[in-house]
Amino acid sequence: MKTEITTAAIQLLQELIATPSFSKEEEGTAELIAKFLQQNDVVIHRELNNVWAFNQYYDSNKPTILLNSHHDTVRPNKDYTRNPFAPAIEEGKLFGLGSNDAGGCLVSLLATFLYFHKEKDLKYNFCIAATAEEEISGTNGLEYVIPKLGELAFAIVGEPTQMHLAVAERGLMVLDCTAHGRSGHAARNEGDNAILKAISDIEWFTTYQFPKVSDEFGPIKMSVTMIQAGSQHNVVPSTCDFVVDIRVTDAYTNEEVLNIIRQEVGCEVKARSTRLKPSSISKEHPIVLAGIQLGRMTYGSPTTSDQALLDIPSLKCGPGDSARSHTADEFIYVHEIEEGIALYIDMLNQIVK
After folding, report:
1. Is residue 285 within 8 Å of residue 125, measured between CB atoms?
2. Dihedral of the CA atoms 320, 142, 136, 249 (nearest 10)?
3. Which CATH number is 2-169+278-352 given?
């Protein structure tokens, strides 16, 4: 059965590559995924450009595992030398836009779901969700779907990790900060210079160390990336605006970090969003232990994915290599998909039977 579903998964990936699916424009690939599942006797749910389904013998008294990956892609960059929508297998490489990020992961998870779909007497239910808008952190993808799935025990999020186990992922907050002063004429030493107030706060952002340090990532990183103040040379500015990029580790929640910052600085602080949360899963979790037993390594992922939208334990794991994502002439090795499906199934078999 593994061989049959692996062949079907690779064929589906070729069809997905040939169908443009830029973020917010994923109708074509959503249709392909829906038909693929229906052709395998799966009852599907589809809203917007998201498709999800549950195993045939779903039991509301059992915990549910979420298998999730996205089917949207970035736009091809100018350095492509191949047609990004022409899937081709050459020397074991399957070329095409979205092949590595995250088509290979998605079709591998779909194949894994089909492997377990008709199994009886499993300890867990399965839910597969192929979602949209991941590349733009949109609100009409996984975030839209999650409330419709019921209670979930944990998730496997398919992103290219070479099938190693990303047990933590940094969150992201962008802060818009405004230091307030009072305008005046520079020649008469009037006013209260907002730039000087901003400098004090910027120094704090540059030097502050949060007390808790992540085992996977070390300290939280805060970077001041933009600043703007003043209208002309002889006017003391009344406001100074600056932007701070914060990569939040699994040692804190976004809200905890934001509260600490507001207590410590004098400027006005507004978070553009707290949606992109840091995430983690215990190294003692059964799915992590299952992966370790199969020779997979654990690590903390520096990149942000839809995992940031989940409030449950989640493991980021999938075939392919993150270093190939968003590159020209993107590809995934066919053997990576084959191995990915086998490893997903072997990991899950250890905990669901």
Report:
1. no
2. -70
3. 3.40.630.10
